[in-house]
Amino acid sequence: MLQRPIELTVLEDRSFRPRVLNATSGSPASVSATAAAAVIASERDAELFVVHVRPPEAMRVGRLAPTIVRGQRLRDPHASVVLSAARQVAWANGAFARVMLMSGEPVPMILSLADELAVELIVIGASRSRWPAVLAARTRCRIQRDAPCPVRIVRLSAPAPAGEPVRTMPVT
Fold it and tell me: Rounded to whole angstroms, how far apart are CA atoms 34 and 39?
């Protein structure tokens, strides 16, 4: 008697949707990255998380004690002007964005959040610079190197000359 191999049927779990994380600073490059992340999230039916990391709050225990840098998630993300603008950009591009406001060093905070949320993609912006990439984009390079998932870099294109229509490229 020949036995057929057992075929396993994997049921799709609809309770878990893919997740996209967008780190924004409010710069023009990060605004275009938020728009690209919203397009990607809406095409993939994914949840979009937008995070803004503010400078760390330094605490000093005593007068001669060393400064302690404390990273934390802040309570009211809707009070941030950067996150409210990012949320509007995401909504205009077809995605609802959950916003998070954090305080601390940007790279460890973004990477720990990506790991905690189990995101499938991190989207960050990059502007053109006269400096070499190693000097100009330490944060971006460290996120790209240490991320637990793929990282999409959205480059800010040069502004269109006056009088010419703005052409947009589809995000793939």
Answer: 9
